[in-house]
Amino acid sequence: MSNDEIFAAAYREHYWAVSRYVARRLDGRTGEVEEVVAEVFTVAWRRRAELPHTPLPWLYGVARNCLANAVRGRGRRRRLLDRLGNDHAAHGRHLTSGPEAEPPGGWVHEALARLSEKDQEVLRLTAWEELGVDELAVALGCGSRAASMRLHRARARLRTEIDRMGRPSTAVPHTARRPPHPATTADAIPAKEHGHG
Predict the structure, then answer these.
(1) pLDDT single digits (tens) 29-64
(2) How many other CB atoms are found less than 10 A from the CB of residue 70?
(3) What's the first-to-final CA gap in the chain, in angstroms?
């Protein structure tokens, strides 16, 4: 197969997985999701000669970089709007929610939000994208041993945050229904872990 055919196959096979990856990190902001996904595959097209045999973890790595660029750009736009006095509050879009509005498992998301961006991403890649350690290493651009250590440390930090919040950090029993979000407990993070040392 030519590089063009390899790219076309990767695009067909992994477009929706990359879209879900991006959407989860942009809270489903459709316009931005489409822009970032387009950028991911533009980069993949330019670098199609580098596409590995199993391209999805590599595409996640590209998506991480594209998301970082998008977030920086959004931050610059937000600062500009703030300087112009054109924020949400000025347009009456300030929303408040009561304690009853907390979504199921919201405390886990709160604990996750207290972690560094790097720790959050390691946990999301293993829980949401169901990457094993070797695939995680590809997505992060590091070796398997380093990925395994980062995952171990991120899980430990998440458990610490959950304990600080006074919430249980035990796993959901296997007989329980699957939660709407894979990362609703600290121990739901494991996913498949080959290459763990």
Answers:
(1) 777 888 889 999 999 999 999 999 999 999 999 999
(2) 19
(3) 36
